[in-house]
Amino acid sequence: RTATAQRSCGAVAVTPGWRRFVAVTRPADTPALRAVLADPDAALAAPDSQWLKRGNSASVVRLSVDGRPVVVKRYNLKSLAHRLRRFWRPSRAWHSWRNAHRLRLWGVPTPPPVALLECRFGPLRGRAYYLSEAVAGETLGTVLPAADAARRARLLARLCALLAILERLRLTHGDLKATNLLVDPEDQLMLLDLDALRRHRRRAAFERAFARDLARLRANWNDDADLLAALDRALADAGLAR
Asked: Whole-structure pTM over 0.70, yes or no?
């Protein structure tokens, strides 16, 4: 199924072209969504769009398409040198699209993918956009410090369960900070920001990358000794400590 995320099939409609590559999940493929993809920068600049992030490397906006909330992430090209480096490589949006389909196939929770748009000039790739369904919730970095003892224990257990799935699949996130973990209204966790996600063939390579993921996760709470100790205990109890 991950291969079908890159070509037309029952689940995905793909429109390749010299200037644009577009892939859309068929349930979301409507005239309104196609209008957004036809001019995504205009959609981002619309008065009713809600900016979630304005960054040099990426801009993130929440908007409504057919009455449904959708998150649009535009991967920016910061300079001419950056553009030249990215010309021949799959875009970060491409990786996010592919990885979202892979995670959902493997049972790893992440917001459902909606669409991918790459601006191209033949084989050369430029600015790119990744669209996903907007899922209600707050980041783990916001929720966990404010949680009472029972909720904190529940969230840490679910975090470790998610990490155990990643370990079993030899997956590493690449930027496992607390803002890339979404807590939904049922206290289930979802992975966000998937462009650096990687599956490792060799165990040794996975172990090194997984240790970096855990170090990045722990760094979120370097200034909260109690929370960091609780996280370390949960990781150790789950056999995940590195």
From this structure: yes
pLDDT in tens, 188-217: 999 999 999 999 999 999 999 999 999 999
Domain that holds residue 212: 138-237
pLDDT (mean) for 75-91: 62
Q: Which long-range contacts (CB under 8 A, 24 or more apart) does 81-89 make?
A: 83/126, 86/125, 86/126, 87/124, 87/125, 87/126, 88/123, 88/124, 88/125, 89/125
Are 182 and 124 contained in the same domain? no
Say how many domains are in the chain. Answer: 2
Nearest in space to 135 (alpha carbons), one of 217, 41, 35, 68:
68
**Whole-Å CA distances, 52 to 71, 74, 199:** 9, 12, 28
Contact 213, 174 (CB under 8 A): yes
Residue 49 lies in a domain: yes
